[in-house]
Amino acid sequence: MDYSSVHHEAKSAMAYAYDHETVHLRLRAKKGLLNSVTLIAGDPFEYRDEDGDFNWVKFEDETPLELEASTAHHDVFFIAIKPPHFRVKYAFILNGDMLYGTRELIDLKTHPELKTNLFNYFNFPYLLDQDRFQAPSWAHEQVWYSIFPSRFHRHEDAPEDDNLAAWDDIQDLNNHKRYGGTIKGITEKLDYIQSMGFTALYLTPIFKAGSQHKYDTVDYKTIDPEFGTNDDLIEMVEKAHQKGMKVVLDAVFNHTSVFHPWFQDVIQNGPDSKYVDYYYIRDLKKPVLPIDLEALETLPYRELRKKMKDHPLNYLAFGFTPFMPKINCDHPEVRTAFLDVTRYWMETAHIDGWRLDVSNEVSHDFWRAFRKTVKSINEDAIIIGENWDNSNPWLSGDQYDAVMNYGLLFPLWQTFGSIPGMPAYDAHAFVDAVNALWVTYPRHVAKSMYNLVDSHDTSRMLSLTGGSIDRFKQAYLFLFAYPGSPSVFYGDEVGLDGNHDPDNRKPMPWGRFNDEIQSWFSWLTQWHHEEDALKSDDFSLTSDGDIITMRRQNLTILWNLGDDTTLSDTQTRMRIDASDSTLKKDGYAILKKNLS
């Protein structure tokens, strides 16, 4: 039998400290290869004298692992153990007779004497709280509401401004069109946000910038005048806290605006600028800009790109946009400045954490320093990275508390939506993809994730479903049922649609809500808050034909991707969302078992 697919890695997402006394272990193998996996484990230093023979003491002696999840190609097995002395040596027995260790695969039928050769055992040296991933206690309990401030709400006493578009004018929508949303506007809608069951706010950038999206920061310590004042933010956070709501701001430390004073000095003084090493200038013998500054300030973006086509940027930038030069966060003066900004807003406005823009393009060393600063001010503050890929290198306890879980978003799109250039998933493919994601992260890490189906950087889910409210509900139900904290992009909860940026950034349609969708979201958030099972990391996902089945402790949730089907009598008696036993096409059922 070929055991080459069997894999385990010590001190990783396959072997991690879950809490101060528990270690979680996973083993992966080719699908269908292993009929059984058992564990042998003991303290590396504990031996017992038995008539002059010193025998190693085991606290797990061929204890079975459970099949945690199956994906398209692999089975993943799982066990939780509690080492009595907070350290453990361990090995796995495969199919009853093959010992899988850190150095060798041993056939125990041939070499039974090597069964407890500890030199071939994996090692978890010690459970140290200092090394353990620990997110804020509230991280897994929230329902997030993501707000794009310029398009959310213009406050009641906002001054007249002839340069603002009418709030309901969505013709020729672009990222430069001004609608006049403000911080005070968010404050005025806190009652609405709370009434919908949202408990934590994430605001895209609000600091002084040149665009409507504000990802091109000019001044990190000043609220953009279009949004209001620093005092407006302080008041909004205070009122949110009075309602028991958290507030998280966007930290854009990967790049600044081309109009930031530092970069302006570099443009004007080149290699003689005191800030030249703050950025990544390619050739100091050449002008920083291939065009004059006035053209950069006045030309429309597409015309500017055309003009610069034959002149590659002489500096690194976010993507290839000339407006966002990449900054060196490892320059000691830049680091000091950004950590000072971090401290300023946490101490001045008492925000509850940060979402980190383009966070995987900034050094791990900077984020470690950032975390120390954040936690020294408020150890219960949250740090959420914008990473679109596998993020385990940032989630080891020394950098982030969570990431925006785009790994979940894509399977949801491919199953409940329709995405050009991406394959459509049936129930089986969807389960494979989600299970692969589930076993990518430690369980307590997965439980702290910021989960989403869309954002200010993507098309909206209602448009991805082609306007199907049933498929839209299926996608959001899965989001709210999956371990972690779900996020709703403003307007989704009332039926706002939109294709990719900028169409996804329409003004909030105040007074034009879809009543069916709004009512359903009110129920969905309440259900998420009330069900203790949804706060756990107990999770399994399977498929049978067109039916997807999720189990979370006493909850069983079904999604039907095919034709109408009839549930069994036992399941029907547990249904809580309908009175009959028919699970309709594009429908769902929530079954609850009474544990008392």
Give an overview of the whole structure.
The protein is globular. Helix 7 (332-348) runs parallel beside helix 8 (364-377) and helix 9 (406-416) runs antiparallel to helix 13. It has 4 domains: 15-131, Immunoglobulins (Immunoglobulin-like); 188-203 and 241-254 and 330-530, TIM Barrel (Alpha-Beta Barrel); 257-328, Oligo-1,6-glucosidase, domain 2; 540-592, Immunoglobulin-like. The longest helix is centred in the middle third of the chain and has 17 residues, at 332-348. It contains 15 helices and 28 strands. The strands form 7 sheets. Strands 20-19-18-17-14-13-22-21 form an 8-stranded parallel beta sheet. Strands 3, 6, 9, 10, 11 and 12 form a 6-stranded antiparallel beta sheet that branches. The mean pLDDT is 94. 24% of the residues lie in helices and 21% in strands. A hairpin with a 3-residue loop joins strand 7 (66-70) and strand 8 (74-81). It is α/β, with parallel strands linked by helices.
Structural class: alpha/beta
- Into which percent range does the helicity of residues fall? 10-25%
Low-pLDDT windows of residues: none
Strand residues, percent:
15-25%
Total discrete domains: 4
Principal-axes geometry comes out as globular
**First-last Cα distance:** 46 Å
CATH architecture tag of the largest domain: Alpha-Beta Barrel
Q: Report on the biggest sheet.
A: 8 strands, parallel
Return the CATH topology of the largest domain.
TIM Barrel
Give the oligomeric state of the chains in this entry, treating copies of one chain as homo and distinct chains as hetero. Answer: single chain
The CATH H-level superfamily of the largest domain is Glycosidases
**DSSP helix count?**
15
Mean pLDDT: 94
Topology, number of strands: 28
